[in-house]
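Researcher: Sequence of Glutathione hydrolase proenzyme follows. Predict its structure.
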Amino acid sequence: MQLRYQAGRAALAVGLLVCGASITPAGAQQEADAIAPEQATTTGAFATASPRVSEALAAKARGVPVVARDWMIAAAHPLAVEAGADILQKGGSAADAMVAVQSVLGLVEPQSSGLGGGAFLVWYDAASGEVTTLDGRETAPAAATPTLFQDGQGTPLKFFDAVVGGRSVGVPGTPMLMHQAHQRWGRAPWAGLFDRAIELAENGFPASARLAAMIAGDAERLARNPATAAYFLPGGAPLQAGTLVKNAGYAETLRSLAVRGPEAFYSGSIATDIVTAVQSDANPGVLSMQDFAGYRVKQRPPVCVSYRIYEICGMGPPSSGGLTVGQIFKLIEPFNLAGRSPDDAETWRIFGDAARLAFADRGRYMADIDFVPMPLKGLLDPDYLATRAALLAGEKALETVAPGQPAFDHALLYADDDALELPSTSHISIVDQAGNALSMTTTIENAFGSRLMVRGFLLNNELTDFSFRSHRDGVPIANRVEPGKRPRSSMAPTIVLRDGRPVLVIGSPGGSAIIGYVAQAILNTLDWNMNVQQALARPHRNNRFGPFELEKDTAVVALQPQLEALGFTVALREMNSGLHAIRIGEDGLYGGADPRREGIALGE
Ligand code: GLU
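Model: Prediction complete. Tokens:
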């Protein structure tokens, strides 16, 4: 193996081997209804794939993990994974590989993430043993007000009336996050990390089956903006799977970023073009050049909770991911699910109501901590969680679920949130040769974001992750729009540690369903010892706002009568997660990719 970026493979291998709202039920229904059916067929779309990609796809289809010793990467598209794998193979770090993966994802999976969006990153540093989190979330413009998503009478706008156009666009964070991660943890030269994406953008890539299906399903909204329509609906017709797509504008943008770094994006003509597109749209936004100049990536303390012999570390506010996943684990811990069957209705009663309790707190208390006082410690306080867990001791589903009253040092008065998050987004998990681990969830929010395309990439609609309502009966909502604030997220990039070393790197897209997808896949792996591929493939069961969601057309629907007998209302839904995970064992690395999407894991 060639190690172009650093010194000894042996030293690195040793490093690795020692690692051994709540929205209302009505809102939830609206969410379920609005999700376009877009299940991917994976293997067919990549018929001409390289041998290593074909092997990885075959492993995924057989339900077995990809196994490796030195490094591993799992993400949502084979071309992006290969770009990252090539960097890792040459001795690049997980941060280097992420830059390459993200830049290719922005091309081949443009509906989910890219330069026009935001991301959260969790990093485990092998040398120091520390976990660091970076917040590259989009921010609201300085001119935004709490009524941004209300009509003249103060009534909240309909979801897609808010989403499509300039109004929903926040200052993108992903380009600066890529650069900061590289500055902190990169080994390879920055500029070279964009080579693969530039080459693919110039020479073309085949549109995947999933991308084509999603374009066809969203054609009316994509047609509203001329630049967006020209790219996704050439000649007025949706791009077909397998069509070779070129994106010269994106190649040009990447070249500027490669040469000039984030300044190329945050000051100068790229920012000007974004601001112009947002302000001149028929549904205009208030983003300005000053907002770009003021954008910062923020380092935040990770949110870590102990669970049995493990420590589960994730992203704190403005994401609700780490806290809500953490609360779920603390609420189920007294019930020893490891000692119960993973198919038992009683197991899922406990998990489902734990998730409901956690979601009630999420809807009341969680938002951008730089803007609203949040009971961060109180929400994870052992005595508080023991009181909440005691609610699960009965035999039936909880009849009512309300937020608790976590300890706080001054009075807290918030009303419940009604933000609606629909799934798009992407997740990247990487372990490099030095044993560093990276877990990053990256998004432009809704599929195709605001549907505004500038310079070859789509602009986010992340501001619709704020609550459209600012108050309820005169009481303010923590996650209301405010100038410069970051909308609450559900993204839950996670690294699980044991004895201070990472054992699982995981995350998923899925809007507010992310929290349940991630919690459950962790449970499948840690408590029931499923291999990582089985853990991701296992049919979903989830509860956010009351109805118990079971993944339709899977074996898990057999639980329906039993859950109903326990008092739950059951909803059968398409549950389009996109989990990507790496299990770090004593004897090597095991990678898994969600069979519901097109991704793979590759390692060596
Ligand atoms: N915008 C959502 C969030 O930040 C993610 C959307 C998705 O996963 O599709 O939580």
